[in-house]
Amino acid sequence: MLVIICSAMYHIGQKFINENINPMVSMTATYLVALIVSIGSIFLFPSKNIVGAFKELSWPSYILGIAVFGIETGFLLAYRNGWNINVAPLFSTTISTLVLVGIGIYIFKEHLSVVNIIGICLCIVGLILMKK
């Protein structure tokens, strides 16, 4: 539920950002709020050694930060360039999922069932229909 509610809030917020504001100023404000909420949330997941936990961070945490910045900047620019809120998230999620299917198969050695393959085909058909 958290992902669904926050995803809807995210896209509505992105769509309403003033187009006259420098996109990186907007992103900076967004990340300042996220930093404050993140720091406050540390106490919701108590740990004996919070400082030590920061020392244990590795490359995936930093790559994730870059990825989140890219996703958010991408949506901000997509909406500024006229993408509709009812198309952009669906299009990007579907394409991302198709890329991740390939990564799952080739890197993580995951397997697809017949139902999964049918679902993938339906996603591709959906992309074609969205284009029309």
Task: Please name the defining characteristics of this protein.
single chain, mainly alpha, 6 helices
What does this protein look like?
- With 132 residues, the protein is an all-alpha fold.
- The chain has helices at residues 2-16, 23-41, 50-55, 59-80, 88-106, 114-131.
- The chain is 75% helix and 0% strand.
- The chain is flat and about 50 Å long.
Helix and strand topology:
Layout: H1 2-16, H2 23-41, H3 50-55, H4 59-80, H5 88-106, H6 114-131
Helix pairs in contact: 5-6
Q: What's the SSE pattern?
A: HHHHHH
Number of helices: 6
- Distance between termini? 32 Å
Mean pLDDT: 94
The whole-angstrom Rg is 18 Å
Count of beta strands: 0
User: Uncertain regions: pLDDT < 50 for 5+ in a row?
Assistant: none
Beta-strand portion reads under 5%
Helix content: over 70%
Biggest sheet character: none
The shape, in one word, is: flat
At a glance:
The protein has 132 residues and is mainly alpha-helical.
